[in-house]
Every structure is written in structure tokens, then in C-alpha cells.
Amino acid sequence: MTPNLVAQSLSANLADVRAHVAKAAEAAGRKSSDVTLIAVSKTHDAETVAAAIAAGQLVFGENRVQEGKAKFPLLKSAHPALELHLIGPLQTNKVRDAVALFDAIHTVDRIGLAEALSAELKRTGRTPTLFVQVNTGEEEQKAGVAPREALAFVEQCRTQYGLQIAGLMCIPPADEEPAMHFALLLKLARDAGLKELSMGMSGDYETAIRFGATHVRVGSAIFGARSAVTAA
Ligand SMILES: *Cc1c(COP(=O)(O)O)cnc(C)c1O
Questions:
Q1: Does the beta carbon of 65 lie inside 6 Å of ligand 1?
Q2: For ligand 1, what atom is nearest to the CA of residue 88?
Q3: Is 111 exposed, middle or buried (CB count within 10 Å of its CB: 0-12, 13-18, 19+)?
């Protein structure tokens, strides 16, 4: 597609997703302003992100620190209100880069990471919004703390490492009904006294909003399909 066509379909997709978010929020008796739409721009280039910004989108998600670093510093300085969320696994040796670049980290999932984040936040004075990732489907290949360990982990982040955890995040198993995973995450967040819920992707964000999602992470419904090689 020519750049113009990309921009046109992008802005139509964004309008469509925003309308669905608003409708799902309303149906759940919630305000659409209580749901943050994170446009997941992984695998798409900086020009595409710029087109989304031109269409009024200022909140983006990336799953890799390196990719975020390659695309966002210039966009961030041009658009100070831009918010960047890390939604993929964070290695301890990338904590410094991640804290410097990202405004929110959705994937706090182990003590070693909590410790490294704590030290880096103290060192820099930065205060990214933090989510604990919960492996609601207890899938071996997936990151996140087990549901039965989530409350103790959040507590340990708070008391031992002084981290303010804002909420919980999950990625339901691909082959299961997402609703039960969203319900579980909602229950865990309530039990832990946490307000923010990062859940819902292109295929299920309306369901997630019904279960209280405050942050939905939507990629392909906005930017189109990613090529299979880079889709992870
Ligand atoms: C890629 C990704 C998304 C977006 O997925 P889509 O199905 O394209 O909306 C959401 N969350 C995470 C953690 C991702 O890695």
C-alpha cells in the first residue's frame, strides 16, 4: 500500500477499535475513559507509528526493548505526551534501557526482576507504571507468576522492594475461552487491592472490558496482520 492508503486504513481501524471499546465499556456500565487503548506496534516501523500518532493515538506497546529503542526515542521527543508500554518479557540485563524508555512495564514476573527494577528506579527516580504478569493458564512456555503465587508476589514487590504495583496483566492461552482467565485476573486484582487490569488483545478486548480491563493491548486490529516470521 502507498503511505496514504496505510494512513487511511490505519485511521479507519483506529476509529473502529475506539468505537468498539466505547461500546463495550458502555455495555459494562463503565466509562470508555477508564479503558486505555494501547496500540501494539511491534514489527511495524516508525513511519507507521507516526501515521497512528497523526490519527490521534498516543499510547503504544512494544514487546521488545531493542525494538522500542530503535523506533521510539525520536517519536517521544517529537510528541512529549506519547506513552510507551513494555508488554513483552524483560531480561534483567535490559532493565536500564527499559526504565529509561518505557512509561509502563506490564511484565514484572519474578523476584530477580523486581530487585533489578527496584534498584534502577531508585537510581533514576523514574516511576513507570508497573504490572505483575500472571500466567493464568499455567502454561509452561509462558511467562508470569502462577495464580496461587500472585498475591504473595505482589506483596513481596511492595514490602521487600518498595515497588508500587498498579495492576495485573495476563495473556490467556490461545486455545481457551479467554473470559475465565479475565475473571480470574479480576479476582486476583481485587484480592490484592489493585486497580489496573491489562488484558484483552485484538480478538478478545471487548470481553476483557466486560471483565474490567483498564488497559487493552490491540495490535493487528489496528495495524493489520503481522508477518508470521516476526509475529511472536
Ligand atoms: C502482540 C501482543 C498483543 C497484540 O496482539 P494482537 O492480537 O495483534 O492484538 C497484545 N499483548 C501482547 C503481550 C503481545 O505480545
A1: no
A2: 13
A3: middle
Query: Mean pLDDT for each 10-residue chunk of the chain (232 residues)?
Result: 78 97 98 97 96 97 98 97 98 98 98 98 98 98 97 98 98 97 98 98 98 98 78 45
Torsion of CA 194, 24, 33, 189, to 10 degrees: 0
Closest CA to 178 of 142, 153, 209: 209
Q: From 199, 190, 149, 151, select the one nearest 171 (Cα to Cα).
A: 199
Q: How many residues does the chain have?
A: 232
What is the 8-class DSSP label of residue 200? -
pLDDT score at 229:
52
171 CB within 6 A, ligand 1: yes
Q: Closest residue (by CA) to atom 4 of ligand 1?
A: 219
The secondary element (H helix, E strand) that includes residue 90 is none
Beta carbons of 202 and 139 less than 8 angstroms apart: no
User: Residue 123 and residue 117: Cα distance in Å, rounded?
Assistant: 10
pTM above 0.70?
yes
